[in-house]
């Protein structure tokens, strides 16, 4: 597993490349504004901590692939990912999380980036997120 693809230089490059697109798509949303507010205050040490947490969660997803998207390991990884996003970027309820999962498979840039860590990771995360959300939204 090579988590170097999630280093800050690539994140900064992506932020520059896609800043206009992101603002056009989500700039008016509370989540976008909250993320911009929070991330503007992070220093290099905080970003390193965030990245280390992301890497750990991605490793958990890859390990969980062996037991399937509805398995306990995958569901723990989804909860950790949801909490990580909520802690550092914006509130991440099931609707938001479900949308992120869809984006992981519908936007080839997300798919390509996730799949560099493990073949099929984007689809696995999508399926795991769908299971997680369905369980929480069930009556």
Topology:
Elements: H1 8-26, H2 30-39, H3 44-64, H4 72-88, H5 94-106, H6 108-115, H7 121-137
Helix pairs in contact: 3-4, 4-7, 5-6, 5-7
- How many structural domains in the coordinates? 1
In CATH terms, the superfamily is Antibiotic binding domain of TipA-like multidrug resistance regulators
Main sheet makeup = none
Give the terminus-to-terminus CA distance: 38 Å
Indicate the structural class.
mainly alpha
Tally of strands: 0
Please name the CATH topology.
Answer: Globin-like
What's the assembly state of these chains?
Answer: single chain
Descriptive account of the structure:
With 139 residues, the chain is mainly alpha-helical. It has a single domain, classed as Antibiotic binding domain of TipA-like multidrug resistance regulators (Globin-like), CATH 1.10.490.50. The protein is 76% helix and 0% strand. The chain is built from seven helices and no strands. It has helices at residues 8-26, 30-39, 44-64, 72-88, 94-106, 108-115, 121-137. The radius of gyration is 15 Å and the shape is globular. It starts with 7 loop residues before the first helix and ends with a helix.
